[in-house]
Amino acid sequence: MRPFSAFTYIRSNKMRSLVLVMMMSFITACFIGGMYVYNPLEIFEVSWQDSNRYLLATTRGSSNDAIDEYHKMQSELADLLPATAQEIMHVNFCYVNYNSMMQYNCTTECLCFQSEEQLELFKERTHLIPDDVVLHDGEYAFSELLANNKGLKVGDHINDSKLTLGAILDKPGMRAFRLKDDEGTDCTLVLGNDGNCSQQLHEDLENLSNTLSKKYPHLYIYTPSTLMEEVREQSAFMFYIFGAIIMVLAVVLLVTINAAFTAAYDKRKHEFAIYKAIGFTRWQIFRKIASEVLIMNAAAIILGAIINGAVILVLNQVLWSSGQHFYGISGAAVTGTVITEALIILLVIFMNWRKVRKCEVTEE
What we know:
Blueprint: H1 6-12, H2 14-25, H3 29-47, E1 54-59, H4 64-80, E2 87-99, E3 105-113, H5 116-126, E4 139-143, H6 144-149, E5 164-169, E6 176-179, E7 185-191, H7 199-215, E8 219-222, H8 224-266, H9 269-277, H10 282-319, H11 331-357
Helix pairs in contact: 1-10, 2-8, 2-10, 3-8, 3-11, 8-11, 10-11
Protein backbone atom coordinates (compact mmCIF):
# COMPACT_ATOMS: atom_id res chain seq x y z
CA MET A 1 0.00 0.00 0.00
CA ARG A 2 1.53 3.34 -1.06
CA PRO A 3 2.29 5.85 1.76
CA PHE A 4 0.35 8.54 -0.07
CA SER A 5 -2.70 6.29 -0.51
CA ALA A 6 -5.98 7.22 1.21
CA PHE A 7 -6.08 3.75 2.75
CA THR A 8 -2.72 4.35 4.46
CA TYR A 9 -4.15 7.02 6.75
CA ILE A 10 -7.30 4.99 7.48
CA ARG A 11 -5.29 1.87 8.32
CA SER A 12 -2.84 3.80 10.48
CA ASN A 13 -5.63 5.61 12.37
CA LYS A 14 -8.23 2.89 12.79
CA MET A 15 -9.96 4.22 15.90
CA ARG A 16 -10.10 7.81 14.68
CA SER A 17 -11.41 6.65 11.30
CA LEU A 18 -14.00 4.43 13.00
CA VAL A 19 -15.27 7.39 15.02
CA LEU A 20 -15.56 9.49 11.85
CA VAL A 21 -17.38 6.65 10.08
CA MET A 22 -19.86 6.33 12.94
CA MET A 23 -20.48 10.08 12.96
CA MET A 24 -21.08 10.12 9.20
CA SER A 25 -23.45 7.14 9.52
CA PHE A 26 -25.79 9.42 11.49
CA ILE A 27 -26.59 11.08 8.16
CA THR A 28 -28.64 8.01 7.24
CA ALA A 29 -31.07 8.92 10.03
CA CYS A 30 -32.69 10.95 7.24
CA PHE A 31 -33.69 7.61 5.72
CA ILE A 32 -35.76 6.61 8.74
CA GLY A 33 -37.24 10.12 8.81
CA GLY A 34 -38.25 9.85 5.16
CA MET A 35 -39.83 6.44 5.74
CA TYR A 36 -41.72 7.84 8.73
CA VAL A 37 -43.04 10.90 6.86
CA TYR A 38 -43.97 8.85 3.80
CA ASN A 39 -45.80 6.14 5.77
CA PRO A 40 -49.32 7.71 5.78
CA LEU A 41 -49.18 8.07 1.99
CA GLU A 42 -47.63 4.62 1.66
CA ILE A 43 -50.62 3.07 3.45
CA PHE A 44 -52.94 4.61 0.86
CA GLU A 45 -50.75 3.45 -2.02
CA VAL A 46 -50.59 -0.10 -0.69
CA SER A 47 -54.35 -0.13 -0.09
CA TRP A 48 -55.18 1.21 -3.55
CA GLN A 49 -52.36 -0.23 -5.63
CA ASP A 50 -54.68 -2.51 -7.59
CA SER A 51 -55.65 -1.48 -11.09
CA ASN A 52 -58.97 0.32 -11.54
CA ARG A 53 -61.57 -2.39 -10.99
CA TYR A 54 -64.52 -0.18 -10.18
CA LEU A 55 -65.72 3.42 -10.18
CA LEU A 56 -67.62 5.02 -7.31
CA ALA A 57 -69.94 8.03 -7.55
CA THR A 58 -71.69 9.76 -4.66
CA THR A 59 -72.61 13.28 -3.53
CA ARG A 60 -70.28 15.84 -1.98
CA GLY A 61 -72.37 16.84 1.01
CA SER A 62 -76.18 17.14 1.01
CA SER A 63 -76.78 20.35 -0.92
CA ASN A 64 -79.67 20.53 -3.41
CA ASP A 65 -77.20 20.96 -6.27
CA ALA A 66 -75.37 17.78 -5.31
CA ILE A 67 -78.59 15.78 -4.94
CA ASP A 68 -79.95 17.05 -8.27
CA GLU A 69 -76.69 16.22 -10.02
CA TYR A 70 -76.65 12.76 -8.50
CA HIS A 71 -80.14 11.96 -9.83
CA LYS A 72 -79.24 13.40 -13.22
CA MET A 73 -76.05 11.35 -13.31
CA GLN A 74 -77.97 8.17 -12.51
CA SER A 75 -80.40 8.78 -15.38
CA GLU A 76 -77.58 9.46 -17.87
CA LEU A 77 -74.92 7.04 -16.63
CA ALA A 78 -75.91 4.05 -18.78
CA ASP A 79 -75.29 6.06 -21.96
CA LEU A 80 -71.82 7.14 -20.78
CA LEU A 81 -70.48 3.73 -19.81
CA PRO A 82 -67.55 2.29 -21.80
CA ALA A 83 -67.93 -1.04 -23.56
CA THR A 84 -65.74 -2.78 -20.94
CA ALA A 85 -67.78 -1.66 -17.90
CA GLN A 86 -71.55 -1.96 -18.25
CA GLU A 87 -72.46 -3.19 -14.75
CA ILE A 88 -74.13 -0.63 -12.42
CA MET A 89 -74.63 -1.41 -8.73
CA HIS A 90 -76.25 0.76 -6.04
CA VAL A 91 -74.63 0.38 -2.62
CA ASN A 92 -73.87 2.47 0.47
CA PHE A 93 -70.60 4.17 1.28
CA CYS A 94 -68.99 5.16 4.58
CA TYR A 95 -65.61 5.78 6.19
CA VAL A 96 -63.63 3.76 8.76
CA ASN A 97 -61.12 5.64 10.93
CA TYR A 98 -57.60 4.48 11.76
CA ASN A 99 -54.42 6.03 13.20
CA SER A 100 -51.37 6.38 11.01
CA MET A 101 -47.79 5.91 12.25
CA MET A 102 -47.56 9.71 12.55
CA GLN A 103 -50.68 9.58 14.75
CA TYR A 104 -52.84 11.24 12.11
CA ASN A 105 -56.49 10.27 12.24
CA CYS A 106 -56.98 8.91 8.71
CA THR A 107 -59.95 7.25 7.04
CA THR A 108 -60.40 4.49 4.51
CA GLU A 109 -63.43 4.05 2.28
CA CYS A 110 -65.84 1.24 3.08
CA LEU A 111 -68.34 -0.16 0.58
CA CYS A 112 -71.57 -1.36 2.21
CA PHE A 113 -73.35 -3.99 0.13
CA GLN A 114 -77.11 -4.40 0.49
CA SER A 115 -77.27 -8.12 -0.21
CA GLU A 116 -75.09 -11.20 -0.39
CA GLU A 117 -75.71 -11.24 -4.15
CA GLN A 118 -74.15 -7.79 -4.48
CA LEU A 119 -71.16 -8.88 -2.44
CA GLU A 120 -70.67 -12.01 -4.53
CA LEU A 121 -70.90 -10.01 -7.77
CA PHE A 122 -68.34 -7.53 -6.47
CA LYS A 123 -66.00 -10.37 -5.50
CA GLU A 124 -66.39 -11.95 -8.93
CA ARG A 125 -65.77 -8.75 -10.90
CA THR A 126 -62.94 -7.20 -8.85
CA HIS A 127 -61.18 -10.04 -6.94
CA LEU A 128 -60.60 -7.55 -4.11
CA ILE A 129 -62.24 -9.84 -1.56
CA PRO A 130 -61.09 -13.48 -1.27
CA ASP A 131 -63.67 -16.03 -2.46
CA ASP A 132 -63.76 -17.79 0.91
CA VAL A 133 -64.85 -14.63 2.78
CA VAL A 134 -68.49 -14.86 3.86
CA LEU A 135 -70.28 -11.96 5.55
CA HIS A 136 -73.64 -11.86 7.28
CA ASP A 137 -75.89 -8.87 7.89
CA GLY A 138 -74.19 -6.15 9.94
CA GLU A 139 -70.69 -7.63 9.57
CA TYR A 140 -67.48 -5.94 8.42
CA ALA A 141 -64.50 -7.41 6.63
CA PHE A 142 -61.24 -5.64 7.57
CA SER A 143 -57.73 -6.16 6.28
CA GLU A 144 -55.44 -7.57 8.99
CA LEU A 145 -53.60 -4.28 9.42
CA LEU A 146 -56.84 -2.33 9.89
CA ALA A 147 -58.17 -4.88 12.38
CA ASN A 148 -54.91 -4.68 14.37
CA ASN A 149 -55.00 -0.87 14.23
CA LYS A 150 -58.44 -0.86 15.83
CA GLY A 151 -57.57 -3.70 18.23
CA LEU A 152 -60.30 -6.02 16.90
CA LYS A 153 -60.66 -9.75 16.38
CA VAL A 154 -63.32 -11.68 14.49
CA GLY A 155 -66.58 -11.49 16.42
CA ASP A 156 -65.77 -8.23 18.23
CA HIS A 157 -68.26 -5.36 18.17
CA ILE A 158 -67.10 -2.22 16.39
CA ASN A 159 -67.31 1.14 18.20
CA ASP A 160 -69.83 -0.20 20.74
CA SER A 161 -72.41 -0.74 17.99
CA LYS A 162 -74.37 -3.77 16.88
CA LEU A 163 -71.96 -4.15 13.95
CA THR A 164 -69.27 -6.82 14.31
CA LEU A 165 -66.08 -7.87 12.58
CA GLY A 166 -67.03 -10.90 10.52
CA ALA A 167 -63.80 -11.57 8.63
CA ILE A 168 -60.16 -10.50 8.39
CA LEU A 169 -58.78 -10.20 4.87
CA ASP A 170 -55.31 -11.30 3.88
CA LYS A 171 -54.80 -8.03 2.01
CA PRO A 172 -52.21 -5.27 2.52
CA GLY A 173 -53.03 -1.80 3.76
CA MET A 174 -56.27 -0.52 5.24
CA ARG A 175 -59.32 -2.05 3.52
CA ALA A 176 -62.89 -2.37 4.72
CA PHE A 177 -66.15 -3.79 3.37
CA ARG A 178 -69.54 -4.27 5.00
CA LEU A 179 -72.73 -6.19 4.37
CA LYS A 180 -76.11 -4.57 4.86
CA ASP A 181 -76.69 -1.72 7.23
CA ASP A 182 -78.81 1.41 7.04
CA GLU A 183 -75.91 3.75 7.87
CA GLY A 184 -73.91 5.27 5.07
CA THR A 185 -74.34 7.36 1.97
CA ASP A 186 -75.98 6.16 -1.22
CA CYS A 187 -73.53 5.68 -4.03
CA THR A 188 -73.27 4.11 -7.45
CA LEU A 189 -70.65 1.55 -8.43
CA VAL A 190 -69.62 0.82 -11.99
CA LEU A 191 -68.02 -2.61 -12.51
CA GLY A 192 -66.42 -4.41 -15.40
CA ASN A 193 -68.41 -6.86 -17.46
CA ASP A 194 -66.44 -9.82 -16.13
CA GLY A 195 -63.55 -10.62 -13.81
CA ASN A 196 -60.93 -9.67 -16.38
CA CYS A 197 -59.28 -6.61 -14.80
CA SER A 198 -57.38 -5.60 -17.91
CA GLN A 199 -55.41 -2.47 -18.72
CA GLN A 200 -58.22 -1.46 -21.06
CA LEU A 201 -60.73 -1.58 -18.19
CA HIS A 202 -58.30 0.44 -16.05
CA GLU A 203 -58.04 3.19 -18.68
CA ASP A 204 -61.76 3.18 -19.50
CA LEU A 205 -62.76 3.64 -15.85
CA GLU A 206 -60.19 6.40 -15.36
CA ASN A 207 -61.47 8.22 -18.45
CA LEU A 208 -65.06 7.79 -17.26
CA SER A 209 -64.09 9.20 -13.84
CA ASN A 210 -62.54 12.29 -15.46
CA THR A 211 -65.57 12.77 -17.73
CA LEU A 212 -68.12 12.48 -14.91
CA SER A 213 -66.09 14.72 -12.57
CA LYS A 214 -66.09 17.53 -15.13
CA LYS A 215 -69.77 17.08 -15.97
CA TYR A 216 -70.98 16.78 -12.35
CA PRO A 217 -68.70 18.98 -10.15
CA HIS A 218 -70.85 18.54 -7.02
CA LEU A 219 -70.35 14.75 -7.03
CA TYR A 220 -67.51 12.74 -5.54
CA ILE A 221 -66.37 10.40 -8.31
CA TYR A 222 -63.22 8.33 -8.24
CA THR A 223 -61.39 5.19 -9.21
CA PRO A 224 -58.41 3.89 -7.20
CA SER A 225 -55.97 5.72 -9.49
CA THR A 226 -57.80 9.07 -9.39
CA LEU A 227 -58.20 8.74 -5.61
CA MET A 228 -54.43 8.28 -5.24
CA GLU A 229 -53.77 11.41 -7.30
CA GLU A 230 -55.97 13.37 -4.91
CA VAL A 231 -54.29 11.87 -1.83
CA ARG A 232 -50.81 12.69 -3.17
CA GLU A 233 -51.82 16.31 -3.72
CA GLN A 234 -53.19 16.57 -0.19
CA SER A 235 -50.07 14.93 1.27
CA ALA A 236 -47.57 17.19 -0.51
CA PHE A 237 -47.20 19.47 2.53
CA MET A 238 -45.58 16.62 4.51
CA PHE A 239 -42.68 16.51 2.07
CA TYR A 240 -42.11 20.26 2.39
CA ILE A 241 -41.88 19.74 6.14
CA PHE A 242 -39.49 16.84 5.58
CA GLY A 243 -37.35 19.05 3.32
CA ALA A 244 -37.11 21.70 6.04
CA ILE A 245 -36.14 19.05 8.60
CA ILE A 246 -33.44 17.76 6.24
CA MET A 247 -31.92 21.22 5.91
CA VAL A 248 -31.81 21.71 9.69
CA LEU A 249 -30.35 18.24 10.22
CA ALA A 250 -27.79 18.80 7.47
CA VAL A 251 -26.55 22.00 9.14
CA VAL A 252 -26.28 20.33 12.57
CA LEU A 253 -24.45 17.28 11.20
CA LEU A 254 -22.23 19.42 8.99
CA VAL A 255 -21.02 21.46 11.97
CA THR A 256 -20.46 18.31 14.05
CA ILE A 257 -18.73 16.23 11.38
CA ASN A 258 -16.62 19.13 10.12
CA ALA A 259 -15.47 19.81 13.70
CA ALA A 260 -14.34 16.19 13.97
CA PHE A 261 -12.44 16.38 10.68
CA THR A 262 -10.91 19.71 11.73
CA ALA A 263 -9.62 18.14 14.92
CA ALA A 264 -8.11 15.33 12.86
CA TYR A 265 -6.63 17.87 10.44
CA ASP A 266 -4.91 19.83 13.24
CA LYS A 267 -2.87 16.72 13.97
CA ARG A 268 -1.93 16.37 10.27
CA LYS A 269 -1.11 19.89 9.11
CA HIS A 270 2.64 19.23 9.18
CA GLU A 271 2.02 16.06 7.18
CA PHE A 272 0.29 18.04 4.42
CA ALA A 273 2.95 20.76 4.53
CA ILE A 274 5.65 18.14 4.00
CA TYR A 275 3.72 16.67 1.05
CA LYS A 276 3.81 20.11 -0.56
CA ALA A 277 7.51 20.54 0.26
CA ILE A 278 8.56 17.30 -1.43
CA GLY A 279 6.67 18.11 -4.61
CA PHE A 280 3.10 16.86 -4.38
CA THR A 281 0.72 19.24 -6.11
CA ARG A 282 -2.33 20.75 -4.51
CA TRP A 283 -4.51 18.63 -6.80
CA GLN A 284 -2.82 15.42 -5.60
CA ILE A 285 -3.28 16.43 -1.97
CA PHE A 286 -6.91 17.33 -2.68
CA ARG A 287 -7.51 13.92 -4.22
CA LYS A 288 -6.00 12.27 -1.13
CA ILE A 289 -8.28 14.24 1.22
CA ALA A 290 -11.34 13.65 -0.93
CA SER A 291 -10.56 9.95 -1.24
CA GLU A 292 -10.21 9.55 2.53
CA VAL A 293 -13.52 11.29 3.18
CA LEU A 294 -15.35 9.39 0.42
CA ILE A 295 -13.99 6.00 1.51
CA MET A 296 -15.05 6.63 5.11
CA ASN A 297 -18.40 7.92 3.90
CA ALA A 298 -18.94 4.76 1.83
CA ALA A 299 -18.27 2.70 4.96
CA ALA A 300 -20.69 4.98 6.85
CA ILE A 301 -23.41 4.41 4.26
CA ILE A 302 -22.99 0.63 4.56
CA LEU A 303 -23.06 0.85 8.35
CA GLY A 304 -26.11 3.15 8.24
CA ALA A 305 -27.91 0.83 5.81
CA ILE A 306 -27.36 -2.13 8.13
CA ILE A 307 -28.56 -0.16 11.16
CA ASN A 308 -31.59 1.25 9.31
CA GLY A 309 -32.51 -2.17 7.93
CA ALA A 310 -32.35 -3.70 11.39
CA VAL A 311 -34.40 -0.84 12.89
CA ILE A 312 -37.10 -1.17 10.21
CA LEU A 313 -37.31 -4.95 10.64
CA VAL A 314 -37.64 -4.59 14.42
CA LEU A 315 -40.23 -1.81 14.11
CA ASN A 316 -42.28 -3.87 11.64
CA GLN A 317 -42.32 -6.80 14.05
CA VAL A 318 -43.18 -4.64 17.05
CA LEU A 319 -45.71 -2.33 15.37
CA TRP A 320 -47.61 -4.90 13.29
CA SER A 321 -49.77 -5.88 16.24
CA SER A 322 -50.84 -2.22 16.59
CA GLY A 323 -51.65 -1.85 12.90
CA GLN A 324 -48.50 -0.06 11.71
CA HIS A 325 -46.06 -1.18 9.05
CA PHE A 326 -43.33 -0.03 6.67
CA TYR A 327 -43.94 -1.71 3.32
CA GLY A 328 -41.07 -0.68 1.10
CA ILE A 329 -38.24 1.74 0.47
CA SER A 330 -39.54 5.28 0.16
CA GLY A 331 -38.33 7.52 -2.65
CA ALA A 332 -38.51 10.43 -0.22
CA ALA A 333 -36.25 8.58 2.22
CA VAL A 334 -33.63 7.83 -0.46
CA THR A 335 -33.78 11.36 -1.93
CA GLY A 336 -33.54 13.01 1.48
CA THR A 337 -30.56 10.87 2.47
CA VAL A 338 -28.73 11.48 -0.83
CA ILE A 339 -29.27 15.26 -0.62
CA THR A 340 -28.05 15.37 2.99
CA GLU A 341 -25.04 13.18 2.14
CA ALA A 342 -24.10 15.41 -0.78
CA LEU A 343 -24.46 18.65 1.17
CA ILE A 344 -22.41 17.48 4.13
CA ILE A 345 -19.66 15.45 2.46
CA LEU A 346 -18.94 17.95 -0.32
CA LEU A 347 -18.80 20.84 2.15
CA VAL A 348 -16.53 18.86 4.51
CA ILE A 349 -14.14 18.14 1.65
CA PHE A 350 -14.19 21.77 0.53
CA MET A 351 -13.60 23.18 4.04
CA ASN A 352 -10.67 20.87 4.69
CA TRP A 353 -9.20 21.57 1.28
CA ARG A 354 -9.16 25.31 2.04
CA LYS A 355 -7.17 24.62 5.19
CA VAL A 356 -4.68 22.38 3.44
CA ARG A 357 -3.96 25.03 0.83
CA LYS A 358 -2.59 27.27 3.59
CA CYS A 359 -0.22 24.64 4.98
CA GLU A 360 3.49 25.37 4.64
CA VAL A 361 6.45 23.33 5.80
CA THR A 362 7.60 26.17 8.08
CA GLU A 363 4.36 26.10 10.18
CA GLU A 364 4.84 25.43 13.86
